[in-house]
Amino acid sequence: MSTQRRTALASVVAAAVLIALKLASGLASGSLGLVSEALHSGTDLVAALLTLYAVGYAARPADVGHPYGHGKAEHLAALAEAGFLALVSIAVAALAVARLTGGVEQQVEPPSWIFAVLALVIAIDVSRTVVSYRAARRFASAAFFSSALHFGSDLVGTLAVLVGLLLASAGWPAGDSFAAVFVAVLVLLAAARLMRRNVDVLMDRAPAAAQEAARSAIDALEPPVDLRRLRLRQAGGRHFVDAVIGISPGAVVGQGHAAADAVEAAIERALPGSDVVVHVEPLADSVAVGERALAAALAVPQVREVHNVSVLQVDGRTELSLHLRLPGALPLEEAHGVATAVERAIAAAIPEIDAVQTHLEPLAPEGAGSRPGDVRADEELVHRIVREATGHPPRELRFLHTDQGLVAFVTLELAPDTPLAEAHGLASKVEAGIRRERVGVAEVIVHTEP
After folding, report:
1. Average pLDDT of 347-359?
2. Which among 188, 170, 158 has a CA at the least distance from the CA of 22?
3. What are 341-344's contacts with CB under 8 Å, separation 24+?
4. Which residues, 6+ apart, have CB-to-CB distance to 85 below 8 Å?
5. Which of 19, 245, 287, 406 is the most exposed place for a label (fewest CB within 10 A)?
């Protein structure tokens, strides 16, 4: 037999002995306080029996139907104990009030041997309270802790009954009824605490202190870990922890596994005996996310231009911001509708985005353009610059007059195997040469083709 079951069995025997002692003494002396204590011990007998069952059932290993184990059996037992305590205490309080108001008459004449019985009862209460409390600390058991609390309240109640009987012996019989009311109130308060504590566990209320300890342990890791979610629940004295962490999308499987191991070890140090599950997710790749967001935004009707796309990581959340350019004459209500459509399109296309912020801007007014008159000098200038840079004339050259000034469109013909970096350099060289030698040109647009 396990240590837990031996401790629970001893509590059952002690509760049965106390019921017999208190009930016999109460009936013999007419003490309502002792009778109420006998009823109180009756609930303790039920509590001890429930604890005996609970610790045996809760110790069963996890199975297919109970993958988290059977630890919550202890909390169900403790909740049932609290219910019994509350009902009996209300009944005792009602009887005591009836005696105090004259509704029930009963003489209290405690014989001297009653006090010897109370001394034995107090000794038993002290011993079983200490034993149950030590078992609760050793095994982190809610059932044993609730039993220790019950036995402690029994001890206080017995002391109150002792005072009441001393007052009755001194000629004030109401002292016994007041002691009974005191015991009932004491039991009700204990039952309320038990109910609240065990309902919190059964409803998977997050243990705040444990959650803070786990989060602090993870935050202290080196190298740092991006904690995206942390959830805790407890049952049977154990904590069950679910954590989601993010790592670089370029990390290999081994690196992700090492990060998960580090998180598990940190939580184990903070909350010994915990059952920890760590899920690893890749952090959002800003470049890839930005490109997908740009494509999703441009697919929305009326969106003419998108720029300043930014992806940020804020407290484990991925947020995206972008600027939208829409026709300047568009009413604000319609513009807001377009922005909302863009945000929804991005959210649908990129589920890992947690929030999208849009900034609205008007499109610049379109300027009128016209073909210039005599531009032979400008054409000769551009042909010379292009030959010097590429060795042959441009494939296409076109000029346009706009409100801002002269705009030159130049197409360069390059070898198909020309590296992109070299092609870009030649285009930049041509553009710089035209701007340098053709003062007043408003814009130079150079396009490269194989």
Report:
1. 83
2. 158
3. 341/300, 342/296, 342/297, 342/300, 342/303
4. 40, 43, 47, 150, 187, 188, 190, 191, 194
5. 287
Question: What is the separation, in whole angstroms, between the first and last Cα of the chain?
Answer: 87
The three-state secondary structure class of 278 is strand
CB 263 within 8 A of CB 278: yes
pTM beyond 0.85, yes or no: no
| H or E, element range at 443 | strand 441-449
Long-range (24+ apart) CB contacts under 8 A made by 86-90 are 86/187, 86/188, 86/191, 86/192, 86/195, 88/39, 88/40, 88/42, 88/43, 88/187, 89/40, 89/183, 89/184, 89/185, 89/186, 89/187, 89/188, 89/191, 90/184, 90/188
Query: For residues 280 and 168, which has the higher predicted lDDT (pLDDT)?
Result: 280
3-state secondary structure 124-155: HHHHHHHHHHHHHHHHCCHHHHHHHHHHHHHH
> CA-CA distance, 41 to 212, in Å (whole number)?
39
How high is the pLDDT of residue 407? 78
φ, ψ for residue 24 (rounded to 5)? -65, -45
| Cα 259 from Cα 161, distance rounded (Å) | 60
Q: Which residue has the higher pLDDT, 372 or 309?
A: 309
Q: Which domains does the chain have, with CATH numbers?
A: 3-201 (1.20.1510.10), 208-282 (3.30.70.1350), 286-362 (3.30.70.1350), 376-449 (3.30.70.1350)
The verdict on whether omega for the bond into residue 223 sits within 30 degrees of 0, i.e. cis, is: yes
Residue with tokens 């000098």: 377
Report helix, strand or coil for 250: coil
Per residue in 260-306, pLDDT (tens digit) is: 888 988 988 888 878 888 888 766 554 567 778 888 888 888 787 88
State the CB neighbour count (10 A cutoff) for residue 406.
17
Number of Cβ within 10 Å of residue 272's Cβ equals: 10
Give residue-wise pLDDT tens across range 214-238: 888 888 888 788 888 888 887 656 7
